[in-house]
From TrEMBL:
<feature type="compositionally biased region" description="Polar residues">
    <location>
        <begin position="262"/>
        <end position="283"/>
    </location>
</feature>
<feature type="region of interest" description="Disordered">
    <location>
        <begin position="257"/>
        <end position="283"/>
    </location>
</feature>
<dbReference type="InterPro" id="IPR044083">
    <property type="entry name" value="RamA-like"/>
</dbReference>
<dbReference type="Pfam" id="PF00795">
    <property type="entry name" value="CN_hydrolase"/>
</dbReference>
<comment type="similarity">
    <text>Belongs to the carbon-nitrogen hydrolase superfamily. NIT1/NIT2 family.</text>
</comment>
<protein>
    <submittedName>
        <fullName>Carbon-nitrogen hydrolase family protein</fullName>
    </submittedName>
</protein>
<dbReference type="InterPro" id="IPR036526">
    <property type="entry name" value="C-N_Hydrolase_sf"/>
</dbReference>
<keyword id="KW-0378">Hydrolase</keyword>
<feature type="domain" description="CN hydrolase">
    <location>
        <begin position="1"/>
        <end position="234"/>
    </location>
</feature>
<dbReference type="InterPro" id="IPR001110">
    <property type="entry name" value="UPF0012_CS"/>
</dbReference>
<dbReference type="GO" id="GO:0016787">
    <property type="term" value="F:hydrolase activity"/>
</dbReference>
<dbReference type="InterPro" id="IPR003010">
    <property type="entry name" value="C-N_Hydrolase"/>
</dbReference>
Length: 283
């Protein structure tokens, strides 16, 4: 499976320009790949104080329709971020658009960065979709720093975690390390497309990447703008899961109980502390 990481700049509030950037990338590279991934909130730019509702887009709006048409025309699925206009709230959302279904999956960012918590509303669910023999799931930027989000997708059978990213300096290395861990922890591919350039008072780190089910770096871009084509060797999925299966082998789901009675007094507590640095639990 060949994918494209669209490491491109965005302009806050300039929806027409951001849409043109996306459509141009699809026109130039869409026929050569199965999936193209754009950065977090690429269509609208970031939410900022005083600029939230005016940048939010409806999922049935003309911009999304144009992207669906481009997806069908080039037979290429798209993952792209935007500020979504809800009935009363605004969300940081990523869409997975497929040639067959249009908007096939919509994900609202569940872990909001501190600067956006008073601007948009967090999502409350994870989801996956099976497409052309693979199960795809979505995450957005800060989500990658929490093992719970990727593990939720893994429990739904994900093969490829798709991350739309808006990571800025100096946190590029943080997301590289997190991406490796999330891929290895869940024995799946992780493909991450990050924003580059400047905007909203930030300098974006670039460094989009693809990581294998064993946590190895398959590809990592530098900081420059570009459309990077990467092939996923799907055989690596079965190879990583052949000898052991983290989901099946984990034991945290079992109820635990103390392996020894808990101390009932300060003197007992001091005595126990002298022989152990922590309470032991048996599973």
């Amino acid at each position: 499976m060949k994918i494209a990481l669209a490491q491109v700049p965005s302009v806050e509030g300039d929806i027409a320009r951001n849409l043109t950037t996306a459509l141009d990338a699809i026109t130039r590279h869409g026929d050569a790949v199965s999936l193209m991934i754009f950065p977090e909130t690429h269509l609208s730019g970031f939410a900022e104080i005083g600029h939230v509702a005016d940048r939010a887009l409806s999922l049935d709006g003309p911009e999304i329709e144009m992207l669906c048409d481009a997806s069908r025309h080039h037979d290429c699925a798209l993952a792209i971020g935007l500020l979504e206009k809800g009935e009363q709230e605004t969300y940081n959302t990523t869409l997975l658009i497929t040639p067959e279904s249009g908007v096939a999956l919509s994900y609202r960012k569940t872990h909001l960065w501190p600067d956006e918590r008073n601007l948009v509303v967090p999502g409350d669910r994870m989801g996956v979709i099976e497409w052309r023999g693979l199960t795809l799931g979505l995450m957005i930027c800060y989500d990658i720093e929490f093992p719970e989000t990727s593990r939720a997708l893994a429990q739904l059978g994900v093969d490829v975690i798709v991350v739309t990213n808006g990571n800025m300096d100096p946190y590029g290395p943080t997301h590289h390390r997190a991406a490796q861990a999330r891929a290895q922890d869940n024995q799946c591919f992780l493909a991450m497309s990050n924003r580059c350039g400047e905007g909203a008072g930030l300098t974006f780190a670039g460094e989009s990447g693809v990581f294998s089910p064993s946590g190895e770096t398959v590809f990592q871009a530098e900081r420059e703008e570009g459309i990077y084509l990467v092939t996923l060797d799907i055989a690596l999925l079965s190879r990583a899961r052949k000898d052991y299966d983290y989901l099946a082998d984990r034991r945290i789901a079992l109820a635990g109980e103390p392996s020894a009675p808990l101390p009932t007094s300060s003197q007992d507590a001091l005595s126990q502390a002298s022989t152990s640095n922590s309470t032991a639990w048996r599973f």
